[in-house]
Amino acid sequence: MHIDMGNSSSGSDLYFGWQQKPGVNFNHSKVFYTNMSGQPKEVCDVSQGIVLDTTELRTGWQDSETNKWQFNPTVSQMAAKPAEGWKRGFAMPVAVGAGKVAMWMASGATAWDALGYLGQQLAQCPEVGHVPLVMWEGAAEGRYDTRTWVYPLLKVQSWMPRPESLSARNAIDLGTQPAPQAPAAPIPGMMPQAAPPAAAPIAQPPAAPQAAPPAPPAAPQAAPGTTFF
Questions:
Q1: Residue range 103-143, pLDDT digits in tens
Q2: How far is CA 133 from CA 34, 53, 82, 111, in A?
Q3: Using CA atoms, how far apart are residues 54 and 50, in angstroms rounded to an integer?
Q4: Which of 14, 80, 124, 226 is the most interior residue, by most CB within 10 Å?
Q5: Domain boundaries, given as residue ranges, for the chain
Q6: Would you say 44 and 71 are in contact if contact means Cβ atoms under 8 Å apart?
Q7: Which residues pair with 61 in a beta bridge?
Q8: Which stretch of 10-14, 82-86, 157-161 has the lowest confidence by average pLDDT?
Q9: How far apart are CA 205 and CA 156, in angstroms?
Q10: Per residue in 187-214, pLDDT tens?
Q11: Which residues have a Cβ under 8 Å from the Cβ of 76 and sit 6 or more positions away?
Q12: Residue pLDDT, tens place only, 65-107
């Protein structure tokens, strides 16, 4: 399946999303939507559940000003934040019913908490290549200092197989562990230099042979006519 990573605005892609409203008591099950790029949003009925194509899940960072994405090489390792103004997020295809597949691309605290709630469940995937059918379970409130937000709670109801050409990814790194440092790139225009060969060890003169220890003194001989008792 081709994944649109949001680098074009052709208007030919169907998108899926969730628009939070103030307070957890609002009926947030009615604010899922789909829309073509640049077109008005239409309410998406999720009462029968939606299928998340987790085999194509991508995590990364989105620039809140330009909407540009920088995805991680793998969902199991979160890269360092590129710069200020970038928010953690994810992208994956979603089967929304009636044969339609939309791209769910979201970033920020709401999106990341939604993925965090799903993460423990996705780690229980029973078989490589299976994808989950999820149902709307409710909404929860997140809080940091004086900021609050609402995020959706999606519950895995069952698993179903996907084509063998796709591989499932289960471990989702939410960025709590530092990413390993990549080796420094060579300076542009400079060829990497091979390490100098190790210096040969200095030959040491052979050790002088050890002198044999002196022979022990001979036992005293008895004088003629002496008797030992």
A1: 999 999 999 999 999 998 999 999 988 999 999 999 899 98
A2: 18, 9, 33, 18
A3: 12
A4: 14
A5: 14-161
A6: no
A7: 70, 88
A8: 10-14
A9: 76
A10: 343 334 444 555 555 666 666 555 555 5
A11: 169, 171, 172, 173
A12: 999 999 999 999 999 999 999 999 999 998 888 778 889 999 9
Name 100's bridge partners: 97
Location of structure tokens 């050890």: 210
Residue 49 has pLDDT above 50, yes or no: yes
User: Residue 14 has which token pair?
Assistant: 């169907």
Under 8 Å between Cβ of 89 and 112: yes
Q: Where are the alpha helices (DSSP H) in 44-201?
A: 109-122
Q: 3-state DSSP call for residue 55?
A: helix
Cα distance from N-terminal residue to C-terminal residue, the chain:
109
The Cα-based distances of 183 to 60, 180, 187 in angstroms read: 20, 9, 12
Query: Which residues on neighbouring strands pair with residue 58, listed in sequence order?
Result: 91
Contact 18, 107 (CB under 8 A): no
pTM of this structure: 0.66
State how far the Cα of 159 lies from the Cα of 179, in Å rounded to an integer: 31
The DSSP letter of residue 206 is P
181 vs 177: CA distance, rounded Å:
12
Spatial separation of the C-alpha atoms in residues 168 and 69, rounded to whole Å: 22
**Unique residue bearing structure tokens 């390490």:** 195
